[in-house]
Amino acid sequence: MNVFYVLPSLNYINSNRYYSLYRHVEIMAREVQRGANSVQGVEATIWQVPETLSDVIIQKMKAPAKAADVPVIRPEQLLEADGFLFGFPSRFGVMAAQSKAFFDATSELWKCQALAGKPAGIFWSTGFHGGGQELTALTAITQLAHHGMIYVPLGYTFGSGMFEMKEVKGGSAYGAGTYAADGSREPTELELQQAFHQGKYVAEITKKLKNKTS
Description:
This protein is α/β, with parallel strands linked by helices and 214 residues long. The chain is 33% helix and 18% strand. It contains six helices and eight strands, in the order E-E-H-E-H-E-E-H-H-E-H-E-E-H. Strands 1, 2, 3, 4, 5, 6, 7 and 8 form an eight-stranded mixed β-sheet that branches. Strand 6 (119-126), helix 5 and strand 7 (150-151) form a beta-alpha-beta unit. The radius of gyration is 16 Å and the shape is globular.
């Protein structure tokens, strides 16, 4: 999911940068975007990273079509942002290769530390409990650290929803999350509420930081 831009008519823009194969992260990203847009003076935009799999492979995996209303982002567009929320599915405890490939393509930004000091959060989707609900976030933080970005964890700011024990719920103190199971499960209402909260929370922090530096 996940970038905050500055426009002449607004103070802040939140852009959600994500990768999603089976749409679980896309659904979460749209809720993150809604949460960020609920903050006065913030406009949230949503982007997806380039696909690296061929059409043949995607068809064999029976993956749905990509969202037609979400543009594909280029690394240099990150420069326009005040803050970020990155979303991706987990592959063996780390972000999907498509997301990693996008980060690898930001080397020119890394060289001049163009993104240093900008706040960033993370959200994700895993197949099940042992699929990397915390490890995916922990391994993703290295990308933010090398760019000098300020990692903004969710903490326990979601309140009682963080302690829900009567239903299956993804996410943790590191960020919002969902479970895809065999691909048929979709984000629950509680998981979407947590995603909305994260979008709002990171947008509020980005706005505060922007006010202090402007």
